[in-house]
Amino acid sequence: MTSRAEVLGALSGVRDPELDEPITDLDFVSELEVENGTASVRLRLPTYFCAPNFAYLMVADAKAAALSVPGIESANVVLDDHYASGEINGGVNDEHGFDGAFAGETEGPDLEELRTIFRRKSFVSRQEQLCRELLAEGHTPSDLAGMTLSDVPASDSLQKYLERRAELGLDTSEDAPLVVDPDGKRVPEEAVIQHLRFARTVRVSIEGNAELCRSLLATRYGIPEREETTA
Amino acid sequence: MYEKDGEKYFVVDGHGHFWDASPENWVEGQEQYGKGWIECFYGYHQLGPEEYYWPMEKFQKYSEETMMKDIFEDGHVDKMIFQPTYLKSWYKEGFNTIEQNADLAEKYPDKFILNGRFDPRDGDEGLRELERQHERYGIKGVKCYTAEWHNGSKGWTLKDPEAKRYLEKCEELGVNNIHVHKGPTIWPLNKDAFDVKDVDDAATMFPNLNFIVEHVGLPRIEDFCFMATQEPNVYAGLSVVTGALMHSRPRFFAKVIGELLFWVGEDKMLFSSDYAIWEPKWQVEMFVDWDYPEGHEFDDFPRLSTEGKKKILGLNAARLYDIEVPAELRLPEAATDLQSVEPTVS
Q1: Does residue B218 lie in a domain region?
Q2: What DSSP letter does each residue of A11-42 carry, written as one string?
């Protein structure tokens, strides 16, 4: 019989596309029940007016994650306390897609373009985090420009960077260059410092938004506040 | 005016409201949105210091006396730029219209600078309304809230062809300060509503207008920074940045200020309390006392001097709005020659 822990494990693979953190870490999963092959999940967000497109992606991804667990035959994911809960829950659980849920309000192909923009940002941010650690260990920017993925010692930051890199369909083989742009193009040695300066701003923005959203969620639902992260 | 350690600061609060979000003002059948909106604001409110929390009832609707005391008596503010936010789909008389603001602004003409608003979806009628606001109130600025709901539409962007007509009208009238406030919805809804690319395009197309991006584009600070560093007429409105972060997330606040100083520079940052989400008093006091926290992660950000704080707290906004600053509160002559100051990063 499929356990709750297995479904929760699958849900931890779902990220908020803007904040680049698992929805389980962000405390967005408020309820999870697993019974007779059916998973029932409730999600909550920091505000009533959180952007509906990202909310939709999380609900849809949570449903797909729950269904990916062997033994789960049906999954019902409900977003609570959101201005567009009705449209989003209906769209995901009845499989109308975002376009169907918000008929007449969208243009072009569903949400994939939006998802790609944020995957690129996540990639840039994770690369900067990894490079920052390597620089702190004594590598120079020009070392980084010459390094391949196999030159980087194993770490949590490397793991996350490789995952983001793979999501964009970029080369993750051992001899691939470490510092590449979101299109996979190697960043030349003379451009590495500036590349990382831009990347830092992206990381500060993503991490900061995550901090702000944690604060708002804590305020909204009376959750005890965590210490501020200081990375 | 705020005085600390022998230094005097002229304070312009760049973004304040006088709103009515009480249940009596909710549109029938749309109550959940009127309620949801003010509850959302109340969540932000609680990111300020606890001793400044208001009860929800007061937060929904506060009196003129409360506002005047919080801002000008206790809050150290010399002038406030009064920004309207209509939201008439949710609030019968509007959340905070130019008329509501004008009641106070006309009563205390030396305290407020009254801004107007436009929404390009109002067509020709809206253009005439913009002219009326200029003629009636002599506005020098407008606030644009791009996520406003309007007849089934959930928002707009400055890229819309209609918006161009309005910006041309602003230029013609001398309404030079365009405060842009992004929100979570837009048309089309499947795109990133917080994207500031439209501001970039408008700023290039209208070099004589100033674009003040409220809450520095949060949650797209990075896109805002990369854009503002290239556009001489784009400014950072610090609404929400000081209110939501300085107290509750000081280390992140320091990084955001550091990034803004690096990309945008202290000559293009404008303090705003975003009253009544937060009161200006603690924000002004804490900002004057502010410095980077301990830790090497802040080492390579530009420092912020007393002079820089004076610019951000008031002198920059005074420049944009032609506000007369008392001689004793100005910077020494050389330092105020801001026209010659280049952006910090090319």
Answers
A1: yes
A2: HTT-EETTTTEETTTTT-EEEEEEETTEEEEE
Interchain CB distance below 8 Å, A204 and B36: no
Residue B251 host element (H or E): helix B250-263
- Give pLDDT, residue A110: 82
Polymer length of chain B:
346
Helix, strand, coil percentages (3-state) for chain B, rounded to 5, are 45, 15, 40
Q: How far apart are the first and last CA of chain A?
A: 40
Q: What ipTM was predicted for this assembly?
A: 0.94
Cross-chain CB nearest to B187 (options A51, A105, A117): A105
Q: Specify burial of residue B324 (Cβ count, 10 A radius: 0-12, 13-18, 19+).
A: exposed
In a domain, B341, yes or no: no
Candidates A132, A2, A106; CA nearest to A52 is A106
pLDDT, one tens digit per residue, over B136-166 is 999 999 999 999 999 889 999 999 999 999 9
Give the count of domains, chain B: 1
**CATH assignment of the domain containing B49:** 3.20.20.140
Name the residue of chain B whose CA is nearest to A207's CA: B252
Range of the domain at B77: 2-330
Q: Which two tokens stand for residue B253?
A: 């606040």
Residue type at A138?
A: G
Probe site for chain B from A18, A21, A48 (most B CB atoms < 10 A):
A48
In chain A, residues with a C-beta closer than 8 Å to the C-beta of B220 are 205
In a domain, B151, yes or no: yes
Delineate the domains of chain A, giving CATH numbers in brackets: 4-110 (3.30.300.130), 113-217 (no CATH)
Q: Which residues of B touch A207 (CB under 8 A)?
A: 252
Chain B residue at shortest CA distance from A53 = B190
